[in-house]
Amino acid sequence: MVSVRDVVYDLLRANGMTTIFGNPGSNELPFLAGMPDDFEYVLGLHEGVVLAMADGYALASGKPAFINLHAASGSGNAMGPLTNSVYSHSPLVIMAGQQVRSTIGQEVMLANVDAAMLTKPLVKWACEPACAQDVPRSMSQAIHLATLAAKGPVYLSVPYDDWSQEAPADAGHLLTRTTNVAGGISAERAADLVAALDGARSPVLILGPEVDAEGANTEAVTLAELLNAPVWVAPSPSRCPFPTRHRSFRGVLPASVQGVTESLRGHDLILVVGAPVFRYHQYVPGELLPDGARLIHLTSDPGEAARAPMGESIVGSIGEVLSHLAGRVSPGRRKPLDQLPDIVSAPKSSGRMHPDALFGLLRDIAPEDVVYVKESTSTTTSFWAQADLSLPGSYFFPASGGLGFGLPAAVGAQLAHPRRQVVGLIGDGSANYGITALWTAARYEIPVIIVILKNGTYGALRWFSKILGSGETPGLDVPGIDFVAIASGYGVTATAVQDEHGFVEAFNAARASGKPALIEVETEVVEP
Ligand code: TZD
Ligand code: CA
């Protein structure tokens, strides 16, 4: 007999999802017991960490990730980090174990009451299959829906007595299914777009995370060079879509209405690619667009297109549209932009290290293909001023601003990238939301390097309270956390360093060890 469980393992295998990120409970045991040998189970000690590790893995690998959580309580623990996965369009298939079908209505212990409602505001789709025989097809639906543009997390609740049931005779069809979006652009619309770009006096490109997710960075460079146009990264970026030392690169747009409009003043055509229009943060009202500017928006996400407050949106495949434009826009219509000035590093200090100095040092000593996962919220300006990122997939940041992503996502990204060094740049506040990922890194010998920027405070909130004019606020300082002791407790080698020399030594030792490591650095408080 072929069971429902057999077919679901076959389906996961057929879709390349042989790593299971999870934290088990009684409802999940019948699925997990006797897991096939070609599967790997990665245990996380808290479901928020499980989810964020899987997210880092999915983002870094570009493949869907499978997550197994325990009932409602495990799912609830995962929902904080899940807010990020929605906006990073992470293809996550979350499966939660459910009590025996016939007992859910009685609300027995660990029944997930109204399971499909639980994660609904966040996921693309949530379902508890109507019967055991529909579990394989529902799992297939979950995988395809998570990976079709716009990608995103989905949620499936499966009663544990379903696993041993006989699978439907025709379930084999599911194993060879494929789904694709034919997301090109019509010839007519493409011609309009090329004409608009060719005819613009002063076009500007605003690039978002989807450009990097699609690996369309090279096409974006070609387009920027043909147009001789400046390039900004869209506000609140979760990825880096463009080489940061390219002469077109202008940095990250401020995350306020007024900040965006001021930065774009003088341009007559604003082309936004692969980002929402726009993901503002601080509320500084103003004109949505500079006078006389036309905004055209390319995205694969109908939701992003529909909710934008201005502009003309085109929904389609970013990669295809960008490569189409890069092959057709006329070169040499505007004069080349000036070369960028050299990066100015912060002067060496004897006390706490300035974040500029730390990021400048990393730029010089980290390998060229380093992957940064960053969750230190007050150091954004410092980071972008110092960064020299040129390869796709080099930078990840929590896409909804929900802390608890960074440290575990760095572990997940390192698992996905055996050949690239992943470095987590994590604030002494943020680290605590996902700290147990250190244990997973140690347990599975995942050689990630976690750098803790220890400034003793919730730096970004100090700055925010200034913006809001809200005055002195309780609960903003986090002094006295000993991350070296915590990391040692979880089995990760850790060092506190005092200066640049100490940092270089610790970083090189971590790299040579092939094991996870944590480096704690006392840093100056700066503003985002
Ligand atoms: N809780 C969660 C889950 N997400 C949040 N974004 C916050 C609380 C609020 N918050 C921010 O938005 S930034 C921040 C908090 C607490 C401070 C983070 O401190 P840090 O980084 O030490 O990690 P900086 O560089 O000192 O700001
Ligand atoms: Ca801090």
Describe this structure in a few short sentences.
The protein is of the alpha/beta class.
Explain this structure to me?
This protein is an alpha/beta fold and 528 residues long. The protein folds into 3 domains: 4-176, 3-Layer(aba) Sandwich (Rossmann fold); 187-326, 3-Layer(aba) Sandwich (Rossmann fold), CATH 3.40.50; 355-522, Rossmann fold. It contains 19 helices and 18 strands. The protein has helices spanning 4-14, 29-32, 47-61, 71-87, 115-118, 135-147, 187-199, 209-213, 217-227, 257-264, 302-307, 318-326, 355-365, 380-386, 406-416, 437-443, 459-467, 483-490, 500-513, and strands at 19-22, 40-43, 65-70, 92-98, 125-127, 154-159, 203-207, 231-233, 249-252, 269-273, 294-299, 312-315, 371-375, 395-396, 422-427, 449-454, 493-497, 517-522. The strands form 3 sheets. The protein has a 6-stranded parallel beta sheet with strand order 2-1-3-4-6-5. α13 (355-365) packs parallel to α14 (380-386). It is globular, with a radius of gyration of 24 Å. The mean pLDDT is 97.
